[in-house]
Amino acid sequence: MNSKQVAPVRMFAFVVALSVSGCRAHDFPQFQPNYREYAYVSNGGSGTVSVYDVVNVRVDRELPVGLNPISVTASNTRNEIYVVNAGSPSGQGSVAVLNAENNSVAAQIPVHKLPTALALDAKDDLAYVSNSGSNTVSVVDLKARRELAQIGVGEEPASLRVAPDGKTVAVANRAGNSVSIIDTATRTVRAVFEGCPGASDVVILPDSSKAFAACSGGNQVMAILLAHTDNHPDGHAIETDRLESLLDVGRGPVQLALKPDGGEIFVSNSLSNSISEIYANTDDVAGAYIMGAEPVRGLVSADNSLLYVGNLHSQEVMIYSIDDGKRIGHIHVGDGPSALAFSAEGHLLFVVDARSGDVAVVRTASRSLFTMLPAGRSPNAIAIKAFKLP
Fold this sequence. Notes:
This protein is mostly beta strands. The strands form eight sheets. The protein has a four-stranded antiparallel β-sheet, with no helix packed on it. A hairpin with a 4-residue loop joins strand 29 and strand 30 (358-363). The chain starts with a helix and ends with a strand. The protein has one helix and 32 strands. The protein is 6% helix and 53% strand.
C-alpha cells in the first residue's frame, strides 16, 4: 500500500472511531473506573460460557465450564455466577461457580442426573436445582460448595422458583404433568397439583401469595394459592396450598414473563404464535396477541411498560406496549432469539440467538440493533451481573 492509499484509510479509521466515541457519550451511561458489568451466556454445544463486557460492549472471554451447560444465574449478593451443567443422560450433572471479579471457574458442585434449572433463596446462600433425570431437587449450600439435601418431586422437573418470602419453592414437573410445592423449612413436598400437562415454567408473585405454572402440553396456565403468607388479596392467611384456577390461554404455553410490579403475567404461546395477558390478582385473561413465529421468551422492562418477545423461528424480537395493549414494533436480530436480558441500567437488551449462535445487542432507547457478538455453539441462556470493585 502506498502513501496515497494510507492516508484515506487512516482518515476513515479516525472518522469511525470519532463517530463511535461520540455516540457512546450520548447513548450510554458513564461509569466509574471501578464499575464492572458482564453478560454470561451458556453454550450447550461448546461446554462453555461466553463472557461479554457490557461497559465496552465486546467479548471478554469464553470459559470452559462443563458438559452441556443449560442455564446461568447471577447472584444478587455476591460476585458469583452459577451455571447448571446438564451433563450426559447417564452421567452426573453439576453447578459451576464463576468468580465474576476475574471471570474464572471457582468451583464445581456435583448434583444429580440432567439438572435443568437453578433458583436462589432470598439471601443467595442456598440454591435449589431441578434434576430432571432423577426427579429430585437438590438443596445446595453455596458458601460450603456442597449439596445439603435432595427432595423427591414429580417426574422430570424442568423449572422452579423460590418465593420472595423464602418459605416456598414451586417446581414444574414436565413429564409428571404437575406442580410440586416444597416447604423450605422442612425440605419436604407439602402439596402436589396435577392436571398441568407438560408443565414447563413457573413464577411466583412478589408478595408470595400465588404461583402460576405454564402447561405447555395443552393451552392452560395453572394458578395456585400458596400457604404461609398473610399477603393474600383478601387479607387472610391461607393454611394450605390450593388450586385457584386453570386459565385458558393459547396453544403450547412455554414461558411466563412476570411484570416487576407483579400485576400481570405474559404467556408465550409457542404453538399459537401469540402471547396471552393474565391479570395476576384476579386470574382474568385479558386476551391473546399475535407476535411472531414460535414465541418462546418474554421479558418486561423495569418500568413495567414494554414487553420484548423472542420468536424462535424468526429473526425478530417483537415489542408490545403493555399500557396500549398492542404491538408497537420489532427489532431484527440473529436467527432464533430465545433468551433475553437487560443491562443493569436498562439501556441495552442482550438477545441470545440460538439458531445463528450469536448475541444481538439492542439499544432500548431507540429500539434498534447496536451490534452483533459471537457466541459458542448452541447458546441457550443469559444472565447479567453488575458490581463495583473495592
